[in-house]
UniProtKB/TrEMBL annotation:
GO CC annotations, alphabetized: cytoplasm
Annotated organism of origin: Cyprinus carpio
Main location: cytoplasm
Pfam families given in the database record: Vinculin
Name this polypeptide is given: Alpha-catulin
Places the protein is found: Cytoplasm
A biological process term (GO) from this entry: cell adhesion
Keyword Metal-binding attached: no
Length: 647
């Protein structure tokens, strides 16, 4: 691939993508766009370098070589012009980018000269070198060109990273402002700005996610972006609830948890795009049983090629580490006695086979054997088979557990009970159902951990970890939201807040069902493309500008809905015609907002257009209703039965 060929010109260099000002600084290609940009250039240069030394110098050959050389030179010239323009706009990268552009232009010129073979006899007569006479010069120029062009691309990529960091910083500033607001009017104003900033951040990070070469980083980015997307709605309702009930402790706890989770997700995005971790700590995934088994089998099967590549003690220790990890299964209170006994038995069989392998291995070494003996080959096969049987049983247990839990929670009875108890103001019942939800949460957290062990790929492991963290966080948030509703059972904002957190729980259960299917596909050898966001509904193909417009309109609809709901809730006569119309229009606006997120009852654009038409007929009424409600509240008035205002 292009990245490996670039290494020819940049061997021994460091790994920082931005470098330190020295031309031979490290160039680590992180994105597919940079790699794909280099491929055509690599192809053309490879054509020049790999020409036959005794190539017949026909007129056709000469013209072909010269065309390739000129094409490279012209392309480099255009490329450098863009790089120089970027350097002029970014002072901090100006010198480094300028040097890289200079080297690229010089290398392009050298290649053009070396391929200028139109007057070959004259060149040879006056001692000038050509591609036919100076292969070493061509290789040197090609290496310099690839290295300098790669550096220009990587430096340009650094600008994209800085844009993401800048966007994140703007979001953080606005997030802090939102956390400190004291009035609903101020909140709506700042949240509108926050929504626009989040839309920009979502597009920058979405493009980056799709461009990342490392599939683990893509999966981590998808998880962080999913948190930010879902938390945006939670932040809205949790903040509204706090503003409506400023002295409610459970509402404050609920809100603080949302803000904290958003900050952590924002930090994770920056860790991914900069390839660093705050505090300098190395971020590593916990080793899953699947990964451990895979590595164990590689070592065992590697004994066929060399009896001395690894020690007997290392193989035995690795197996014991694997067996220790199976305790996550055997120590679980939800693992049946039969399943526990089967796993322990398979672990014992694997130990026995490995012990037998080590005995035959040592015997072969004592004989100074250069390759595995027949007896040792049989032990290798039995050891690998036994550890594969163990993996198959662990997969069966984890998938079976997850399937049972999904069926158990499909009716969402506990969530419904919490909503009903909260709406009745029954704190004692809320506490009882909160205990049940905690039990369900622990079951789901543990199941996600087991699925992570057998998921089969690192991206799926990351998705399992994300699901585990989501259940761990949302469970307590649902409980605090339910407690708030129980303390304020007539509060529509508190009810809306609880609904949002319950929907997030239900959505995560749906994601687990999709994840389960992908894990099964990998196990059965039907591995497809990992779904980064685990969405079942596919969005229409829109360009970036259209997506931005729709996302902003969606947030505006959501804000409008919140504004209307907040004002309407203050009315004493909840059965009044004006109140009823406000609620209908608010519901329509919210449905359209959900459509922009790929959720809700509107499934097609035809549904959306129909809803928009209905809403358009009532649009003139919206302004009148909101302004009337606001005016009435300011002057402590009430609407007349016919919609007029009376004192």
């Amino acid at each position: 691939c292009a990245a490996s060929l670039v290494g020819v010109g940049s061997a021994g260099m460091a790994s920082s993508p931005c470098g330190d000002g020295n031309f031979d600084c490290g160039l680590q290609i992180q994105t597919r766009s940079v790699e794909q940009t280099l491929i055509p250039l690599v192809s053309q240069i490879t054509t020049l370098i790999n020409h036959k030394d005794k190539l017949k110098k026909t007129e056709k050959t000469l013209r072909a070589v010269q065309r390739v050389g000129q094409a490279v030179s012209v392309a480099v010239g255009r490329f450098v012009a863009v790089g120089e323009a970027i350097a002029a706009e970014n002072e901090d990268l100006k010198d480094e980018m300028g040097l890289a552009c200079f080297e690229a232009r010089r290398a392009g010129t050298a290649i053009a000269q070396l391929t200028d073979v139109s007057s070959l006899e004259q060149c040879e007569g006056d001692g000038r070198s050509t591609v036919f006479s100076d292969r070493t010069g061509m290789v040197k120029a090609a290496r310099m060109l690839l290295s300098s062009v790669t550096k220009v691309l990587v430096l340009a990529d650094c600008i994209v990273i800085k844009q993401i960091i800048s966007s994140r910083n703007k979001v953080l500033v606005t997030l802090e402002q939102l956390e400190r607001v004291s009035t609903f009017q101020e909140f709506v104003q700042i949240f509108s700005q926050f929504g626009n900033e989040m839309v920009e951040f979502a597009h920058l990070t979405g493009d980056r996610q799709n461009d990342l070469k490392d599939e683990k980083k893509r999966a981590r980015m998808a998880a962080a972006r999913a948190v930010l997307e879902k938390c945006t709605m939670m932040l809205l309702t949790a903040s509204k609830t706090c503003l409506r009930h400023p002295d409610c402790e459970s509402a404050r706890i609920n809100k603080e948890a949302v803000f904290q989770r958003m900050r952590l997700a924002l930090e994770q995005v920056i860790e991914i795009v900069t390839d660093t971790r705050s505090g300098g700590e190395a971020r590593a995934l916990p080793v899953s049983i699947y990964a451990g088994i895979k590595d164990f089998k590689v070592k065992v099967e590697g004994l066929r090629d060399s009896l001395y590549c690894v020690s007997c003690e290392a193989v035995a220790a690795q197996l014991e580490a694997l067996v220790e990890k199976t305790e996550d299964f055997t120590d679980s209170a939800y693992t049946s006695h039969e399943q526990r006994e089967t796993i322990i038995q398979l672990c014992q069989i694997t130990r026995q086979e490995t012990k037998q392998l080590i005995n035959t291995w040592r015997h072969a070494q004592s004989l100074k054997a250069k390759e595995a003996t027949d007896e040792m080959e049989l032990s290798i096969l039995k050891t690998c088979q036994s550890v594969s049987d163990l993996r198959r049983e662990l997969h069966r247990v984890a998938v079976g557990r997850a399937t049972e839990l999904l069926k158990l929670h499909s009716d969402h009875l506990v969530l419904q009970a919490l909503k009903a108890s909260g709406g009745d103001g029954n704190l004692e019942a809320v506490a009882d159902y909160a205990g049940t939800l905690n039990e369900h949460k622990e079951q789901l957290v543990e199941t996600c951990r087991l699925l992570c062990h057998i998921s089969g790929t690192e991206p799926l492991e990351i998705t399992c970890i994300h699901a585990e963290e989501t259940f761990r966080v949302i469970g307590p948030q649902i409980i605090s939201a339910a407690q708030t509703l129980a303390l304020h059972p007539t509060s529509k904002i508190a009810k809306e807040n609880l609904d949002v957190f319950c929907e997030a729980w239900e959505s995560q259960l749906c994601d687990i069902a999709i994840l389960l299917k992908e894990i099964n596909d990998v196990f059965e050898g039907r591995r497809g493309k990992h779904s980064a966001n685990l969405k079942t509904v596919k969005a229409a193909k829109l360009d970036a500008e259209e997506q931005t417009t729709i996302a902003k309109l969606g947030l505006e609809l959501c804000l409008l809905t919140s504004d209307v709901d907040s004002e309407v809730e203050r009315w004493d006569e909840q059965d009044h015609e004006m109140v009823r119309l406000c609620q209908i229009i608010s519901s329509m606006a919210y449905s359209m907002y959900l459509f922009t997120r790929g959720e809700g009852l509107l499934k097609t654009t035809l549904d959306l257009f129909h809803q928009a038409e209905v809403r358009q007929h009532s649009f003139s009424l919206i302004g009148f209703l909101i302004e009337s409600v606001r005016s009435a509240i300011k002057s402590n008035e009430s609407p007349g039965k016919d919609g007029s205002i009376y004192y």
